[in-house]
Amino acid sequence: MADKVIVAGVSVDTRHWIGGRRVASAETFTDTSPIDGSTLGEIARGGPAEAEAAVAAAKAAFPAWAATSPAERARVLHAVADGVEKRLDELAIVETTDNGALLRSHRRGVMPRVAHNFRFFADWLLRLEHEDFETRGHTNHVSWDPAGPSVLITPWNAPLMLATWKVAPALAAGNTVVLKPAEWSPLTASLLADIAAEAGLPAGVLNVVQGYGSEIGDALTSHPDVRRISFTGSVPTARRIAGSAAARLTPLSLELGGKSPLLVFADADLDLAVDLAVEQYDNAGQVCLAATRILVEETVAEEFTRRFVDKASALVQGDPREETTDVGPTIHPRQLEKIDGFVRRAVEAGARAVIGGHRRDGQYYAPTLLTDVAQDSEIVQEEVFGPVLTLQTFGTEEEAVRLADDTRFGLAATVATGDHERAERVTAQLVAGTVWVNCFFVRDLQAPFGGSRHSGVGREGGTWSFDFYCDVKNTVTAPNGWKNHG
Question: Catalytic amino acids?
Fold first, then answer.
């Protein structure tokens, strides 16, 4: 196996990063580009041995990193952010080649956000405090103690950004990390290891191991030396991870699937509502937060649909490296098959494809809008994770809320209305970790992030991240208990 591959002119190491050095595996897996199906390289395929080595490295590095002052940890994280910014274009083209998301989005939004993730949590660490308070004259002092080695398992749809949502706060908290990126988009995690080492992050503080699902995942999530597990992905995988963690009572943070609604009321700015709806095709619909269920008030449904079709039909689908492309490919042939199966079954059950409903050449699926769908149908209840939206109508505010909340998920919701009081009433009733009103995907890292119901367990962001990645301690001191030693 070659130790490195060249992707769009960028050299990427295909081995694991464990204990500050590159480590090969006896077996590999093939990484392909969703853009054209071409082989990008053979990636080290880790298993229990690599998991053991990575956790051992994280455990060995933990005492020194935990004892490092917050100011010094913050300085190193800012140096990592500097490294991301210096290699922004390289990271952008590698990520686009590896997972098919738009290059222009990576350059202008995603990779700058990666750097921001490190800067934000570095700065938040230095301002992290809880005001002391008294109980019957005793002083209570709250502190955040680093918890220990943390296993972070991340998805393929926004590989580096979602990885650093976890890596940055875990490192800021004083934990050491074993990062396991998704096997369908592993490359930028390897580049992150290089950047972190160049920034001065000590050996063993960040470890990156590649591998297929449970082959390495089970060994990581059941390891007795792991103190935190954070996972973003599917509900079935989360159940497996939770089972492993339960035996050792390892704290979990789970950000899982979504089937989020977009509620469009008759008093909404209809052009804005249409823009919000079409935006759900971003990243070929491969966004956990996407509002894939469009619920429109009956009186404006016909006009909304007409405007939506006009706008969505103008989207350009093709090579994500082209500046004019709006919608790229799906990540993998298996994902394409899954998407197509959902749509075919929906149409067979009576749904009508207003636009799309079919594959295009390669790994591309046409942006699709389905109507005439039943509330209890598979296409309305299950996450497709592709460029497929459904449209239903409602007659009253109460019906809109009922339809919106009628799934097992609760990750996000979007509301389009011109009535402030209605917005307050509706958002108060929606089951969701995040609700956007007349906007979408505005994400501030100081806000709590996570899902309700089957969309997740726990919250991260701002102080919530430190609450998770730390053992929060309260020290109670009695008054006048000190001896005077002169």
Answer: 255, 288
